[in-house]
Specification:
InterPro entries: P-loop_NTPase, T6A_TsaE. Its main location: cytoplasm. This is tRNA threonylcarbamoyladenosine biosynthesis protein TsaE. With 149 residues, this protein is an alpha/beta fold. It has 4 helices and 7 strands, in the order βαβαββααβββ. The protein has one domain: P-loop containing nucleotide triphosphate hydrolases (Rossmann fold, 3-Layer(aba) Sandwich). Helix content is 21%, strand content 24%.
Amino acid sequence: MSLYLADAEATEAAGRALGAVLHAGDVVTLSGPVGAGKTSFARGALAALGLDGEAASPSFPIVIPYATPETRLPVAHVDLYRIDDPSALEELGLDDYLFDGALLVEWPEHGGRALPGPALRLTLSPDPGGGRRLTWQAPAAWGARWPLR
């Protein structure tokens, strides 16, 4: 399944739709090339969770945690681009965020099989006609919650 996103605004709107239904324990992975809109999507999700202002990119810090009351539930925005060894994920303590929060993980392929799961796997890619194409693999746990059709 896929969805066409015309621009950065549409990408953030898709993120907001997802953020509105995000629950504690959810893992959302965001794959795609540089500039495909992963951070824009995450910013939309964080806005829907109540974050006031623009979310910073976690490229340098790797993990940016957000907690209540800043967001309606704790969420960690993670960027694994600079991770060379998946065993390093254990040191990040990502599992700890899932007790009462959620994870938004960019560049999940750098984490290998070390990421907590099951994850809602999203891929953003440039569309030949302009804009972006969002594709997804939703685990059974997402059932009827998946907001994008």
